[in-house]
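Quarterly update, task 2.4: 6-O-phosphono-beta-D-glucopyranose-bound model.
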Amino acid sequence: MIKFPEGFLWGAAASAPQTEGHSLTNGKAPTTWDEWFKLNPEKFNNGQGPQNTSNVYEMYQEDVRNMPKVGLNSYRTSISWARLLPDGKTLNQEAVKFYRDYFQAMLDNQIEPIINLFHFDMPWWLMEKGGWENRESVADFAFYAKTAFEQFGDLVKTWATFNEPLVHIECGYLYQFHYPAIVDFKKAVQVGYHTLIAHEYAVREFRRSGIEGRIGIILNVLPAYSRSESVEDIKAKEAADLLNTYSFLDPAVLGTIPEKLIELLSYNQLLPDTQVDDKKIIAENTVDFIGLNYYQPRRVKAPSKVHHPAQMPSDLYESYDWPDKKINPYRGWEIYPKALYDVAIMMRDQYHNIPWFVSENGMGVADEERFKDDNGVINDQYRIDFMKEHLEYLHKGIEAGSNCFGYHVWTYVDCWSWLNGYRNRYGLYSVDLDNGYQRTMKKSGLWFKQLSNNNGF
Ligand code: BG6
């Protein structure tokens, strides 16, 4: 039997925009998702927009009561900035009450709330002045963070500033999956830099607030594996890790931006605008822990044509189609559990073994209804196998001394997935969109409960 350390966090992750619903009511202001859906509904799978998602705004009490039934002892979600501060300055008292009740319900059910501040949901008022392209966004975010700490700091002891900052940067400014859906490497770097500084300011607000607890950041990690050991392929791997992994991990944990990243950006004329005291702020505001969302590795090879200066990351590294890969055909992502071991070792050796947890891992599958058994339960054995394989490698990493304190599955109840709408389902509970958002536990929910009860499997 594989046993995890005492006090290990077994939980699930989600976000405000993907679960709450009520996206244009109860005082919430629109985000880029609300506005983009208005402008281009055809981009969203099946016309499923952000308005209603999984109706947690109404169903949170029931949801929280059900959490222990699948063994959760912790839960991550986010606060919606546009709900809490609809114009960026004025508190929405209804939102304060909603979040306080929600977090209190978690505490009453022995669920540790892990609360994140930004999960791809840029308020529209801020997007209208340029979003993260505009340096003002840093102060706006710091004010929001300070407000959240003041309003909920007595209930929440574990905070995160951003979820997967790389994703809103690359999807918004390189690959067109998020608004403003433009392609501009230079802007992407500037947006990334302001996001990083916004994170640092939020950590500073947290330290200044004096509230008890810990603060971190949730990063997506796609560890790069090179096609070969050739100098060119290794160089491509290094560029991929610098841009995508070390770019946030180094400043967040070590308090510095990697010199090699600065050289790479400078060589490609991509350096962002900065301010004099930024370096000091980065050095002084390192985090207490890291969350790593892991779904898939990044296979890379040397670019086939070299453009200088780079116009796209593919001018620095190209993706490589590994012939032996195992794939989740619904999401198109490679399944490679061993990477979790490698990540654990990276955290141990490169990041002074800072406490970290797997903040997301999971498997999105389409048309899960077809797996229903005679009792109406979705038999998602594939999801159980997926989690087991990943946990085995995570456990090896912990045995090797890596300081991992938890594992969160994406997700608890099926949720809305951006442009993919409700196509791929990830939950331990299914959500019936045609029948009042009714929740039904899947087989994986039962398995997760045993996992958590036994602190292993
Ligand atoms: C992570 C995000 O990237 O993966 C979630 O934090 C997202 O917001 C999840 O939903 C699964 O990816 P997707 O694109 O299938 O929803």
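Highlight for this quarter: The chain has a mean pLDDT of 98.
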